[in-house]
Design a protein that fits this description.
The protein has four helices and no strands. With about 80 residues, the chain is mostly helical.
């Protein structure tokens, strides 16, 4: 059976990378249509992107600390 266009991996990655809040809503709405590991992967991408996306609303010093912590987590992963 073919996968619908809005559940394909390419579309979901682009959605989570470009607009993380919309990606979160999309993932939460369709969470029962994914396997658990697949859903966690997309949720991780959306979470990291959301952290980077939210730094534009923060104080520059705090944003620098958040970005440093993100890079450290990605490096240790």
């Amino acid at each position: 059976m073919k996968t619908k266009w809005y559940l394909r991996p390419g579309f979901l990655c682009v959605l989570c990378l470009v607009t993380p809040p919309i990606g979160y809503v999309h993932l939460l709405y369709h969470r029962k249509k994914f396997q658990h590991q697949e859903w966690l992967g997309y949720l991780t991408i959306a979470t990291f992107t959301m952290a980077i996306w939210l730094t534009k609303f923060m104080n520059p010093v705090i944003a620098f600390v958040v970005l440093g912590l993100l890079l450290w987590v990605i490096w240790k992963w």
